[in-house]
Write a structure and sequence with these properties.
Blueprint lengths: L2 H7 L17 E4 L2 E8 L1 E2 L2 E2 L10 H22 L7 E12 L7 H16 L6 E7 L8 E9 L1
Parallel strand pairs: 5-6
Antiparallel strand pairs: 1-2, 2-7, 3-4, 5-7
Length: 152
């Protein structure tokens, strides 16, 4: 099954890959390694804002992280000239969680992205990962995630 068919089966529509908001590029390819810049939590209604531990719960944070993962896949698709089946492996995700000083469930939040990658890609979605706290994120978003991917 192709990745696009699997996404359709799951009811996931990839958005257009977001343009950079500052002086950077959305991705850099080095051989078969693709580095994708941080994708902030957003959906069709706009930015997903919030602070975990202060009005936003883990479930909402995980949903925001899932949206970041969808945006990461959109960037991979753009980097692969529209052919998402060139994606071989998710190598590493780094997740930043806008959270209070006493919030300690960053891994549960970033599971929203990790679970999506495995749900869509199976074993090729399994990856190394970091999940860290941040006192704030750009535009007040709840989550930002960057990624490293192996492509062909």
């Amino acid at each position: 099954m192709t990745i696009e068919k699997r996404l359709a089966e799951l009811g996931i529509n990839l958005p257009e890959a977001a343009a950079p908001a500052a002086n950077y590029v959305p991705f850099v390819r080095d051989g078969d390694t693709l580095y994708v810049a941080g994708q902030i939590s957003a959906d069709e209604n706009g930015l997903i804002k919030g602070k975990l531990g202060a009005g936003m719960d883990v479930e909402a944070g995980a949903a925001a992280a899932r949206r970041c993962a969808i945006s990461l896949l959109a960037q991979v698709k753009a980097a692969c000239g529209g052919d998402l089946d060139r994606l071989v492996q998710v190598v590493k995700l780094t997740g930043f969680v806008n959270s209070t000083d006493d919030f300690t469930d960053q891994p549960k939040v970033i599971n929203g992205a990790s679970d999506l990658m495995v749900e869509v890609l199976g074993d090729a979605g399994r990856h190394a990962r970091s999940a860290v706290s941040s006192p704030s994120l750009p535009l007040g978003v709840a989550v930002e995630i960057d990624g490293i991917f192996r492509i062909r």
